[in-house]
Amino acid sequence: MRKLIHLLFVLVFLTACNTSGNTEENNTETATTENVATTENSEQEEVRVGEWLSKGEEISPEGAIDIEAFKTKIEGQTEINTKLETKIMSCCQKKGCWMKVDLGDGEEMRVTFKDYGFFVPLDATGMDVIMEGKAYYDTTSVEMLQHYAEDAGESPEAIAEITEPKLELAFEATGVLLK
User: Fold this and answer.
1) Which ranges constitute the DSSP H helices of 2-133?
2) By CB atoms within 10 Å of each CB, which of 21, 64, 73, 74 scores lowest?
3) Are the C-beta atoms of residues 140 and 111 closer than 8 Å to each other?
4) pLDDT single digits (tens) 11-39
5) Which parts of the chain have pLDDT scores under 70?
6) How far apart are CA 142 and CA 53, in angstroms?
């Protein structure tokens, strides 16, 4: 009996040593979603395409259209696949999991990233961007609009003023280039 207890103790000790030796794996498994996203954002492999920083699927700058061509292309459509060059006006300050881009004339379009698969740097505001993916019209719920406002650092009062859903042009990017 004593040998059995001793053997169990040794097995438990060896198992504990083996699993605690890989702290990076353990930390990833036990981290909260926010911490994982933040870690992923800061540890994403930096890939360059010429002078551009690439995120998501690898894309090239060739074939990107400007805002005016984009507005013409989306006119009368409910969704289009396209590659667009514009400027980042703001981005999520918690994870970099969305951004708003300039559509000209004071208009902006929210951009999310396919399957939540990549993020932009938290300091991406003001950067030039080329993004490839799907532009579409979508009704954003009050709950989601409030969530976006919170991510953007809006005051509780401003968030509380959001009481109606909004039909807006949105974009789901499969890949982006930042400069």
Assistant:
1) 2-20, 23-30, 33-43, 67-74
2) 21
3) no
4) 333 333 333 343 333 333 333 333 333 33
5) 1-45
6) 33
